[in-house]
Design brief:
Shape: globular
Strand content: 15-25%
Helix content: 40-55%
Structural class: alpha+beta
Number of domains: 1
Distance between the termini: 30 Å
Order of helices and strands: EEHEEHHEHHHH
Length: 183
């Protein structure tokens, strides 16, 4: 899957490749990137040798994506190096081994709310990813948000703000689903 969301506007979703199996380091890196660049939720996928982090709803120009990739601690050095030579990032979604080696793992809550355009384009990109990866979404309770207390502290968000965000996102997703049923 490549990072392009809208080729005419040079919009890309944020994709990061970690070839380490230390989940704490991956979470630390993702949260640091989210805070510094003010990014949205990160969907974490487990691979045979590490993790992929995809922020479907964080839409940025490719130059900014390259900066984000360079900024990310513990991100695969080859992934960083190759991003200098292309106008998009590609992340593997199909298994490269005999068994399926990519599966949904968790969501790390972002630090800001989505715009309507980000939500619409991000959902199209997430649907594209879902169609490629298939069963990995069905085998998990997708999307599930990490509720580790230390994750909330790292984002400097108090519990009241999180409750308000959860209620508003539930209400907006309910109204979206209600509108779909009417059509």
């Amino acid at each position: 899957m490549n990072s392009y969301v809208d080729i005419t506007q040079n919009l890309h979703c944020v994709v990061l490749d970690y070839d380490i199996e230390d989940l704490e380091k991956v979470e630390e890196s993702v949260i640091e990137v989210q805070q510094f660049w003010c990014l949205t939720d990160a969907y974490i996928f487990k691979t045979k040798h590490g993790f992929h982090a995809i922020m479907f709803h964080s839409l940025v120009p490719y130059e900014r994506l390259r900066q984000i990739i360079d900024f990310a601690k513990y991100c695969d050095p080859m992934f960083k190096y190759i991003s200098r030579f292309y106008s998009h990032r590609t992340i593997r979604v199909a298994g490269k081994y005999k068994e399926k080696d990519i599966s949904f793992f968790k969501v790390i809550r972002g630090v800001r709310e989505l715009t309507k355009q980000e939500w619409e384009l991000g959902e199209m990109k997430r649907a594209e990813h879902r169609s490629m990866i298939g069963d990995a979404y069905m085998l998990s309770k997708f999307p599930e948000v990490s509720s580790k207390p230390d994750n909330k502290k790292k984002h400097n968000t108090n519990d009241n703000q999180i409750d308000v965000l959860n209620k508003s996102s539930h209400a907006s997703s309910k109204s979206i689903n209600d509108n779909r049923l009417k059509v």
